[in-house]
Design a protein that fits this description.
By secondary structure, the chain is mostly helical. It has 19 helices and 5 strands. The protein is elongated.
């Protein structure tokens, strides 16, 4: 959220996933430390005064690649960095040192019975001399370059493609199986079904599963027959079992969440009753994680606020959707936040209030939406099963 006060959270799962470090125990502990959270609060704003650290982290990958086979270049970069740090600490060659006079040893041996007479001229000279030294100190302090607020430079991260680690053949089998399910070729789908379930032990295959199921929604295939419904439920349960074992990695579970409320089947009896997939996957422990719901909520709020300002920018600039889509898609959420923080001081009170209300309504609508989602995923339709889950200690603690 940007207005009225920036609210920016750190997405640890995405940070580690983009770098292929999801299993790094040291990095996980570091990102959970109190010191790192203070670091995020201090430097998380996308529009603020920047320093050497910001510029260095934005280009560190390029520097490391250039230093890989060049030892002298590495030393030269270290020397240049050290020179910048030294200049920050010593901006002027003339060092100001305040001189405090010390009393001589003879002064302590003199016993003055009366307070000495003070000379007004000497006192005036001391004051003038102190003021001149203070002016010099202020001039030295003003010589230090105070950087103006600007957009914080961001590093270009080469994403770690997890799909390559799964194997092309396995992904082809998975896609073929999902296609056969949607086309009601159940016999063909069952031939590769067990192989697909074994492939779901890898995270790449689980992500590919959610992507293929999302494609089915685009072609209005959300209403399934009983055979299609059962096969998709089994695949999602197999994927979520692996997610339960992953701990705090909610990438696949987040992708399953909208699918669970979209795919459904008609129950017999002629009453037109629809059964959704969420009723068959409620028993997984990931739905009981508060961190999971927070991450999903923050992510969806970010997407909607990003869309809000992208649409506003297109209308202000007078561009059509096609003309502005390329530039807007390239802007990240932090880029949009930095641009809005930069424009905040130039807006009128009416415009400020309008933007605050727009974001407030976006957050409120998502809060209502996620309240419904939590009811779907956490409250079982069969209360006898809910009592069983409570007794076994899975999924409904404290309800």
């Amino acid at each position: 959220r940007i207005h009225p006060k920036p609210v920016i959270t750190f997405n640890k799962q995405m940070f580690m996933s983009l770098r292929g470090l999801t299993d790094d125990d040291f990095l996980t502990r570091l990102l959970d430390s109190m010191g790192f959270h203070e670091f995020i609060q201090e430097r998380g704003a996308p529009y603020r005064p920047c320093d050497v650290f910001d510029d260095l982290t934005a280009h560190i990958q390029t520097l490391l690649e250039g230093e890989r086979d060049d030892h002298h270049r590495s030393l030269r970069n270290i020397h240049d960095l050290g020179k910048q740090l030294y200049q920050n600490e010593n901006p002027s060659n003339q060092v100001f040192a305040q001189k405090i006079p010390r009393a001589s040893d003879e002064a302590y041996n003199k016993l003055e019975t009366t307070f000495p007479h003070l000379n007004a001229e000497i006192i005036a000279e001391v004051i003038v001399d102190g003021q001149s030294k203070l002016t010099l100190a202020n001039r030295i302090a003003s010589s230090v370059k105070k950087s103006k607020p600007r957009n914080v430079p961001c590093a270009v991260i080469r994403q770690h493609d997890e799909l390559l680690s799964c194997g092309v053949r396995r992904l082809e089998v998975l896609r073929e199986c999902i296609t056969n399910i949607f086309e009601s070729k159940i016999t063909e789908a069952r031939k590769t079904f067990q192989a697909v379930k074994r492939a779901l032990r890898t995270k790449a295959a689980r992500k590919a599963l959610t992507q293929e199921l999302s494609k089915g929604l685009k072609y209005n295939r959300s209403v399934l027959d009983s055979s299609q419904f059962d096969l998709i439920v089994k695949l999602l349960n197999a994927a979520l079992i692996e997610e339960d074992a992953m701990g705090q990695d909610f990438t696949v579970a987040r992708a399953v969440l909208p699918l669970a409320t979209m795919f459904c089947r008609k129950l017999g009896g002629g009453g037109g009753i629809m059964q959704f997939i969420y009723s068959k996957i409620q028993h997984h422990s990931v739905w009981g994680s508060q961190q999971f719901w927070e991450n999903c909520f923050y992510s969806d709020v970010e997407q909607h606020i990003r869309s809000l300002y992208r649409a506003e920018g297109s209308s202000v600039n007078g561009l059509t959707r096609t003309e502005s889509s390329g530039e807007n898609e390239a802007m990240s959420a932090l880029d949009i936040a930095a641009e809005q923080l930069k424009l905040w001081s130039t807006l009128s009170d009416t415009e400020r209030q309008s933007r605050v209300q727009s974001e407030e309504s976006t957050v409120y609508s998502q809060a209502v939406h996620y309240s419904n989602r939590m009811v779907y995923m956490r409250i079982p339709l069969d209360m006898r099963r809910g009592v069983t889950l409570l007794r076994t200690g899975t999924g409904l603690e404290g309800q």
